Amino acid sequence: MIGTNRLFIRPYTNDDLSFLESLLSDPQVIRYIGNGKPRTKQGAQLFFNWNLTHRKDNAQLGLQVLIDRETGEKIGHAGLVPQEVDGVTELEIGYWIAPAFWGKGYATEAAFAFKDVAFEQCNVTRIIALIYPDNLASRRVADKLGMRMWKSIERHEKEVLVYAKEKTPS
Predict the structure, then answer these.
(1) What is the Cα–Cα distance from 3 to 111, expressed in whole angstroms?
(2) What b-and-e string marks burial along 126-150, b requiring 16 or more CB atoms within 10 Å of the CB?
(3) What CATH number does the domain located at 2-166 have?
(4) Which of 140, 97, 82 is nearest to 9 (CA)?
(5) Which tens digits make up the pLDDT trace of 12-66?
(6) Which of 60, 99, 102, 98 lies closest to 80, judged by CA?
(7) Does the pTM exceed 0.90?
(8) What is the C-alpha separation between 66 and 75, in angstroms, rounded?
(9) Of 32, 56, 118, 126, which is least surrounded by CB within 10 A?
(10) Which residues, including other chains, have CB under 8 Å from residue 76's CB and lie 6 or more apart?
């Protein structure tokens, strides 16, 4: 289990499927994810199953539910997801926050926690974030993590910026 000052972070369970559906069907949340199109209930189930496949390989991987410690409310998800970039598998820090909780620093808080997991428990030497150029909020989170724009690639027929951070030697 992962925690921060304000967040309790735990793996998804079947009980969270309706919450995941709420994120995936919200045009504001999904506009910078994948092809940018909201998903149906069936699409949410497929995404849920896809997310679980990562945990089978490594319990630290996959998107996990972010819960406000004070209220117990689910506010988004974040986690570590393998992504292929130019034929190489990289570990991405992903973070999605429900619009009611935007601008409160939750994505940054969760991303810092997962950066530590990636470098200390998954033993990777680099982490990335895939960000659409006009997603300024996510770019600010990446900047706060010390990530820098590494390259630009194409995904779903759109330009995507690849932010990266190398592990600093101990």
Answers:
(1) 11
(2) ebbbbbbeebeebbebbeebebeeb
(3) 3.40.630.30
(4) 97
(5) 999 999 999 999 999 999 999 988 999 999 999 999 999 988 887 788 899 999 9
(6) 60
(7) yes
(8) 6
(9) 56
(10) 23, 66, 95, 96, 97, 98, 101, 106, 107, 110
The pair of three-digit structure tokens given for residue 9, joined into one six-digit string: 């972070």
